[in-house]
Amino acid sequence: MAIDLADYERKAREAVQAFWGNREKARQKQIEAGKADQGERAGVTGGKNMDGFIALVIDIVRANGLDHADIHQMRRVLTLPGYFRPTKLWDLLVINEGRLIAALEFKSQVGPSFGNNFNNRSEEAIGTAHDLWTAYREGAFGEQSRPFVGWLMLLEDAPASRSPVRDSSPHFPVFKEFQGASYAERYSVLCRKLVHEQLYTTAAILTSPRSASADGAYAELSDLTGLRTFITELAGHVAAEAARS
User: Per residue in 102-118, pLDDT tens?
Assistant: First the structure.
């Protein structure tokens, strides 16, 4: 059976459009209430910014044979056991007949500050995956095949995220792929390495300008770290799990 990509390109544009629209609504709501957060935080506290991408993933799961799987979105049922820490709260879990099918994280970052946030996001992504796979190895999820583990980042397309960045490493040289790389390029390198090191089944980086609130425009940096690969890998994994059921 061919996998179904569920018209993902159209739905991704709608998700991007909703992302920017929801940020602006949250910012305006706080301004009207007279308690706007500092800087860009006012657009984050709404908490629904990446819901369009969650809806897209749910459509992929339903379209590829797991229409009866339990897809968890509510905070109280998004916790998995860890190995180095007791638990980890994920953004979306797919469980079928007691088996963990997929665990996904959806992240976003907008300017003006990209440097510290990039490092924090990188450390979080690496640690989260290492913790999950160690817990898996130690039997935290019972005897089952490897789940799909996905990480998706939506990054603001802005001059500060596209410009080359200089690094200071006085004792040893920075790896060549990072030298002079923009933050967008660094995210693409991160995603590629997360997959190559088998920390994530697939990891994607999308860039989008604030003007995309009008048309949902987004761009990819490479095939490996693009949305089509993310969606195709997920659909294939779901279809394989459905065939086992």
Answer: 999 999 999 888 887 99
Per-residue CA distances from 115 to 81, 109, 217 (Å):
31, 11, 24
Cα separation, 85 vs 64, whole angstroms: 33
Q: Which ranges constitute the DSSP H helices of the chain?
A: 8-33, 51-63, 115-137, 159-162, 183-196, 227-244
CA distances from 182 to 96, 163, 189, 219 (A): 40, 5, 10, 15
pTM comes to 0.91
Q: Please check whether residue 194 is in contact with residue 151, taking contact to mean a CB–CB distance below 8 angstroms.
A: yes
74-96 per-position pLDDT tens digit: 999 999 999 999 999 999 999 99
Identify the helix (H) or strand (E) that includes residue 44.
none
Cα–Cα distances (Å) from 90 to 27, 110, 133, in that order, read: 25, 21, 14
What is d(CA 79, CA 73) in angstroms, rounded to the nearest whole number?
10
